[in-house]
Amino acid sequence: MLDYRLVEAFAVVLEEKGFEKAARRLCITQSAVSQRIKQLEELHGQILLQRTNPPRPTEAGVSLLNHFVQVRHLEEDLLARSAQGNRDGFITLAIGINADSLAVWFLQAIQPFLADRRVVLELQVDDQDQTDRLLQQGKVLGCITTRSSPLQGCRVSSVGVMEYLLCCTPAFQRSWFPHGLTAAAAERAPAIRFNRKDGLNDLIFGRIFKVIPASSPTFFIPSTASFSDFVKSGLCYGVLPHQQAATLLEKGDLVDLAPGQRVRVALFWHCWNLRSEILDLFTRQLLAGANDILAAPAGRRSSGR
User: Fold this and answer.
1) Which residue, of 48, 71, 279, 299, has the fewest CB within 10 Å?
2) Confidence (pLDDT) at 86
3) Looking at the domain assignment, is residue 103 inside a domain?
4) pLDDT tens digits along 230-266
5) What residues make up the domain containing 255?
């Protein structure tokens, strides 16, 4: 039988990224936190926490963290249903999400759910191809990702499709692409990417040129709002969500550098396969809300294991 007092100390050290902050949150001494984790490791007969800065879980520690996150959520869910008159009781849902979804459609999709319930969200933002790792590491209860196959112990549903266009200002096009979008021009012109994991430019280039042009001078701007501001300022060209670019294209503030070459990115919702009323309600609202906003994929599907 697990001693959840010890497991909680382990989880809080990881959440707070250190023993000192964990001690303050748990209202115990730093020495007591260390002792609890040592006891936990002795009970398990293996190291669970790498004493790095910040601390990181070992492979066995990841499994334990996953278990604790699920147990804690089920406990919160049970208390929320039993304590109907508890005005102070809020449930926290930790969700992994990509920046574009957060900026473009997420709040609109789930706002009705949040307005009717005492739920707060802890959003962890990462690239859409990486958010599933947050779920695997036990850091979130669910995530929005491009991965279509279900993770072990999780269920997955199709959310919808985000469409992206390669855009710049008319003046930028005249200066850098006077003869249209060519591989040579794409290599010379300053571009913008969200971060070094952002591969949307390459998806469009691969479709048009069949090869990826050499790296161009690139702004790396990890902010969706600032990202579009850089493109609108005429400093660079880049890939924007259709929902952000549509009005600017209609007004003539931006031009589509590659007409007919939109990138369609299918998104999926993964969550732990728990019997949780609040997680089920959140999932239903998320999928219904996204269905009203995003483009539909060829066929919606839901599966799990």
Assistant:
1) 299
2) 44
3) no
4) 999 999 999 999 989 999 999 999 999 999 888 999 9
5) 163-264
Q: Please indicate, yes or no, if residue 26 is contained in any of the structural domains.
A: no
pLDDT value, residue 208: 87
- Is 233 a member of any domain? yes
**Considering the entire predicted model, what is its pTM?**
0.71
What is the chain's mean pLDDT, rounded? 87
- What does the DSSP assignment read for the chain? ---HHHHHHHHHHHHHTSHHHHHHHHTS-HHHHHHHHHHHHHHHTS--EE--SS-EE-HHHHHHHHHHHHHHHHHHHHHHHH-TT-TT--EEEEEEE-HHHIIIIIHHHHHHHHHTS-EEEEEEE--TTTHHHHHHTTS-SEEEES--SPPTTEEEEEEEEEEEEEEE-HHHHHHH-TT-S-HHHHHHS-EEESSTT--HHHHHHHHHHSSPPPPPPEEE---HHHHHHHHHTTS-BEEEEHHHHHHHHHHTSSEESSTT--EEEEEEEEEE----HHHHHHHHHHHHHHHHHSBP-SS--EEE-
Domains of the chain: total: 1
The CATH number for 204's domain is 3.40.190.10
